[in-house]
C-alpha cells in the first residue's frame, strides 16, 4: 500500500521560509508527477506546484519566484522550498503523486496535509 507523508509545516513570520517534504512509501515502481496543493480556510483547494519525473516544473502564479519544488526520485520524495512567505500563504498544504505505479497498477495518491501558518 502506498502512503504519502508530508512534513515541515509550522508557524513562521512573514518573510520567513519553510521547507515541506513529501515522502512516498510502499512497493513503488515509478511516480510521474509529484506536487502540492493548498487550501486556506473558507477557500477552495488550489494548485501550488508540480514536478515531473524528469524534473520539469510548473508553479501557480501566486508563488512563482518564491517557491521552488524539487524531488529525489531515488527516495520517492518531493520538496517544496517556500521563501518570502506571506500571510496569504497560510493554508493546509497537501502533497499529490500522479500515476504511482505498483504491482497492482497505477493511480494517484494524496497525503493528509500539513499546516503552514504565516503571521504578519
Biggest β-sheet description: 8 strands, mixed
N- to C-terminal distance? 40 Å
Average pLDDT, all residues:
96
Rg from alpha-carbon coordinates: 14 Å
Stretches with pLDDT under 50, minimum 5 residues: none
Brief description of this entry?
The chain has 120 residues and is mainly beta. 0% of the residues lie in helices and 58% in strands.
What does this structure look like?
There is one protein chain. It contains no helices and twelve strands. It is mostly beta strands and 120 residues long. The strands form two sheets. Strands 2, 4, 5, 6, 7, 10, 11 and 12 form an eight-stranded mixed sheet that branches. Strands 1-3-9-8 form a four-stranded antiparallel sheet, with no helix packed on it. It is elongated and about 45 Å long. The mean pLDDT is 96.
Give short descriptive properties of this protein.
single chain, 8-stranded mixed β-sheet, 12 strands, mainly beta, 120 residues
Annotate the secondary structure layout.
Layout lengths: L2 E5 L2 E4 L4 E8 L4 E2 L2 E6 L6 E6 L5 E3 L7 E6 L4 E6 L8 E12 L2 E6 L3 E6 L1
Parallel strand pairs: 2-12
Antiparallel strand pairs: 1-3, 3-9, 4-10, 5-6, 5-10, 6-7, 8-9, 10-11, 10-12
Amino acid at each position: 500500500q502506498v502512503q504519502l507523508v508530508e512534513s515541515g509545516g509550522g508557524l513562521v513570520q512573514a518573510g520567513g521560509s519553510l521547507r515541506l517534504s513529501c515522502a512516498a512509501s510502499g512497493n513503488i515502481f515509478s511516480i510521474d508527477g509529484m506536487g502540492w496543493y493548498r487550501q486556506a480556510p473558507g477557500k477552495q483547494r488550489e494548485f501550488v506546484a508540480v514536478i515531473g519525473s524528469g524534473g520539469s516544473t510548473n508553479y501557480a502564479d501566486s508563488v512563482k519566484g518564491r517557491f521552488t519544488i524539487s524531488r529525489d526520485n531515488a527516495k520517492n520524495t518531493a520538496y517544496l522550498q517556500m521563501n518570502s512567505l506571506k500571510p496569504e500563504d497560510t493554508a493546509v498544504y497537501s502533497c499529490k503523486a500522479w500515476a504511482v505505479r505498483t504491482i497492482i497498477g497505477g493511480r494517484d495518491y494524496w497525503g493528509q496535509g500539513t499546516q503552514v501558518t504565516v503571521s504578519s
